Amino acid sequence: MIREICKNVFHVGAIDWDRRLFDALIPLPDGTSYNSYLIKGSEKTALIDAVDPGKKDVLIDNLDSLRIDRIDYIISQHAEQDHSGAIKFLLERYDSTVLGSQKCIELLLDFGIVSKDRTRAVSDNELLSLGDMTLEFISAPWVHWPDTIFTYLRERRMLFTCDFLGAHLATSDLFAWNPESAKRYYAEIMMPFRANARRHLERIRALGPEIIAPSHGPLHKRPEVVLNAYSEWTSDDVKNLVVVPFVSMHGSTEKMVSHLVDALIDRGVSVERFDLTKTDTGALAASLVDAATVVFGTPAFITRPHPLIAYAAILANALRPKARFASIIGSYGWGARIVEEMRSLMPNLKMEIIEPVIVKGYPKEDDLRAIERLADEILRRHRELGLL
Ligand SMILES: Cc1cc2nc3c(=O)[nH]c(=O)nc-3n(C[C@H](O)[C@H](O)[C@H](O)COP(=O)(O)O)c2cc1C
Ligand SMILES: [Fe+2]
Ligand SMILES: [Fe+2]
């Protein structure tokens, strides 16, 4: 299925309605899409990004139904296989030159997708004339790989941003704004690169595009909506929110978590609670986008924190949320190194640790009072930040 976005600019990519996992890690509750854009200039034809190799036939059918017999340039904005995998098959059919950043070309060679003689590196601000249309390449590294470029189609004021400003969302709408899926996608893919994302946002605002066309999910007809959302997410501002990922084998840690959640609600603090035996990683990641505090709950498990909470800690360490405070609550039977191990799993995070509450066995009255004191401490810090 092909969709004409504006004169001589077509969406020729694929919707992946059924995909349920990305990066062998992230659940995709709503599928995704691999957007690929064909631009037919009066002299030259260019394709921006290809699709995941699993959907190459959709892309090729789309090009055939548009009767495309020549693609002069394939612009690879990012070498990750969900956008570059199909390039290999396109090069068997078309005599195209693959354009990308120097880093992208190197990666495409490393991945065995292209051979060197079919490539040309482009630099920041370089222009490419297609006849009546001009493309400008914009270097945008580290959202989320070192190779990314954006492409600006000047005559249509249309900016192609590859993974940046995208969403994992399969939808029949060409243009849409779904803040939940956009936020989830930001959390999983872009949050670790918050500072770079902020820089790129400024550059995009200065360009003033009228359409933003990412390579996953719907396009943006009102760019300020997605740009403003990203400005908020990438800012240092946090919300009056505590995220509580936890696991409990026999109910002791769970009792502590429930007591903490109620105590925080009583104090006017919002809470998101995630039982890690049931949690969708994407939902947890999204909650970390603007939380001020994270409290991890875990029992001792063979001298250490439970593996599921260790997983959440490793994930948080990788995603680098902007939370200011953290704490740890949990239960043990005879002796374990819960707090030290949790700290060592999160070396990247600069969060201040509020006094943990680790109890022996099932929590008693005194233990629950300690949990209430933790809630008081969290409230005090949130107040100091002016969050309530
Ligand atoms: C598989 C397993 C391993 C455990 N390993 C330890 C340990 O190394 N050190 C310790 O103090 N307690 C250990 N415990 C005991 C639990 O940490 C303790 O019973 C705790 O109260 C359980 O909390 P929960 O009810 O939240 O699961 C272990 C329990 C289980 C089931
Ligand atoms: Fe990517
Ligand atoms: Fe991607």
UniProtKB/TrEMBL annotation:
Location of the Flavodoxin-like domain: 242-379
GO molecular function: electron transfer activity; FMN binding; metal ion binding; oxidoreductase activity
Transmembrane segments: none
Designated name of the protein: Beta-lactamase domain protein
